[in-house]
Amino acid sequence: MTGHMGNDMTVDTTSAPRHGRMPRHGALRSYLKLAASVIAVLAVSAAGVAAYAAFDLVGSLDSSLELENEEMLDAVPDIGAMEGGLTFLLVGSDKRPESGAFGDPEEESGELNDVTMLLHISQDHSHVEVVSFPRDMLVPVPECPDPEDPEGEPLSAMSEVKLNSVLSHGGFGCVASTIKQLTGVMIPTGGIVQFDGVAALATAVGGVEVCLAEPIVDDYAGLHLDAGTHSISGYDALAFLRSRHGVGNGSDLGRISNQQIFLASLMRTVQADGTLEDPVKLYSIAKAVTSNMQLTSALQDPARLISIAKALQDVDLSKVAFIQYPTAYTEDFSAVVPVESAELVNAALQADLPVQLDPAASDNAELGTVADPAAPPPADGAPSESTETAAPTTPVESLPPDVPGQRGDEVRCSTANDG
Asked: Which keywords are on file for this protein (predicted)?
């Protein structure tokens, strides 16, 4: 578990290599592994930036987080696609950057996990699930180490707590323990991304194309986009991901659907553009990640990051499922709670099974998306569910219509909040 939250959670946004510094404690292993990675990168790239890139990435690494299950990654190779599967917890913090671009970092000093996602890459790399957990979902929180005093008395377990309060309560490790308890899935690695990190990643891939069914105006997030298709990057991308008041029904559930539109498009972009086969582009993404994210210590090795990225290189986009953890509102509509279908999502993750989303699950326009009217229909006139053509012996978890989401190959458009 980590106790390095609070003042240690600074994000290094510089891009220049660091010279004249001794390696930080624990970084020697990364330096030794990078010797092999530099040779491999040079072998597949004529770009003279390869050697600089590898060592520059080491200089970008921020102080690491720690999770109790990290030893599961000891067998991940340094070069080439990783062997086996991976489960990664991504936390999006609303902590304001020092630049003041999103408010005074001193006055608005709260640190909530407004985004909590679980990325699961299957053992055979044949399918991927990305599960988004609503920020206002009431969850039980297990006993966690105190970030202010990791060796002292742990923080007491709690019940009926909003998920987005767990980061400020017990740090990243406590969020991981909470999601592990909720889903029954081991979480060996993960990271925290803040405002600037999202903008940097969208820029690193050259922009992400998103579709808007209607004009969206959200003064709170700073999003003002006309209907149609837009390629967004930088702070426009961040505003798109942050927008809640401008999309769907104005709730966090609509924002999650918006984020799934972005992530599905991002994955289509990196596959179509050959990003995962281009060492220079791959370096740009890795640089954006290591410079703007606080990662668990198992990912403090750029070669390992690249091996994980390569595992996604050939995944069939129709077998990438973006899932909104199924919930229902409480009686006073102040929060949401998991529903029975959540156990089906948990079971699929635990058993490493692909899922089949019900097409009707995304028909609710209140959730913030509609099918792209310009998208061509499937060739046979039927839904192009990859699991429909799977071998009969291939087990698949079919999810009911109260589990919203979309496939990676599916183009959907954001709807505006009329309220």
From this structure: Membrane, Transmembrane, Transmembrane helix
pTM: 0.78
At 77 the pLDDT is: 43
CB burial readout 291-304, b (16+ within 10 A) else e: bbbbbbbbbbbbbb
- Domain ranges in the chain? 26-377+391-414
Pull the structure tokens for residue 109: 């000093």
Contacts of 8 (CB under 8 A, 6+ apart): 63
Mean pLDDT, residues 363-386 taken together: 59
Task: Check: CB of residue 132 under 8 Å from CB of residue 322.
Answer: yes
What confidence tens digit (pLDDT) does each residue in 73-99 have?
555 444 466 778 889 999 988 765 555
At the second CATH level, the architecture of 26-377+391-414 is 3-Layer(aba) Sandwich (3.40)
Question: Are 185 and 67 within 8 A, CB to CB?
Answer: no
Measured between alpha carbons, how far is 216 from 416 in angstroms, rounded to an integer?
5
CA dihedral of 23, 27, 33, 35, whole degrees rounded to 10: -10
SS in 3 state form for the chain? CCCCCHHHCCCCCCCCCCCCCCCCCCCHHHHHHHHHHHHHHHHHCCCCCHHHHHHHHHHHCCCCECCCCHHHHCCCCCCCCCCCCEEEEEEEECCCCCCCECECCCCCCCCCEEEEEEEEECCCCCCEEEEEECCCEEEEECCECECCECCCCCECCEEEEEHHHHHHHHHHHHHHHHHHHHHCCCCCEEEEECHHHHHHHHHHCCCEEEEECCCEEECCCCEEECCEEEEECHHHHHHHHHCCCCECCCCHHHHHHHHHHHHHHHHHHHHHCCHHHCHHHHHHHHHHHHHHEEEEHHHCCHHHHHHHHHHCCCCCHHHEEEEECCEEECCCCCCEEECCCHHHHHHHHHHCCCEECCHHHHCCHHHCEEECCCCCCCCCCCCCCHHHHCCCCCCCEECCCCCCEEECCCCEEECECCC
| C-alpha span between 344 and 346 (Å, rounded) | 5
